[in-house]
Design brief:
18% of the residues lie in helices and 45% in strands. The chain has 110 residues and is of the alpha+beta class. The mean pLDDT is 87.
């Protein structure tokens, strides 16, 4: 099972954002799980050019993804997608480790 999957739509959007910010060559996408949100844990996505001692860097769908050791426990098997519809727009994470999620989909419990 791959640690994280990145859909083609997410990959395209990530590359567009990196290009727009002039960070395409230097940065990767950091996926992180932090405490907070209505269900106890929430996702955090950011562009980062620092690889810490306890970080794992993987290439997924043409995107450099950086995950710290603690977050990896919660994210293994997850899929990152990008949706753009009349009802919602943004990155969406499908996480098989989430036991419950809040209505907005931004936080979860494990």
């Amino acid at each position: 099972m791959p640690m994280i999957e990145v859909t083609e739509a997410a990959s395209t959007q990530i590359h567009a954002l990196l290009d727009k910010e002039g960070k395409a060559e230097s940065h990767g996408l950091r996926m992180k799980v932090i405490g907070g949100g209505c269900s106890g844990l929430q996702y955090q996505l950011a562009f980062d050019d620092n690889l810490g001692e306890n970080d794992t860097e993987i290439e997924v769908g043409g995107v450099r993804v950086i995950v710290d050791e603690r977050s990896a426990l919660y994210l293994v098997g997850s899929s990152l997608d990008y949706v753009d519809t009349l009802m919602e727009s943004g990155f969406k994470i499908e996480n098989p480790n989430a036991k419950n999620t809040c209505g907005c989909g931004q936080s979860f419990g494990a």
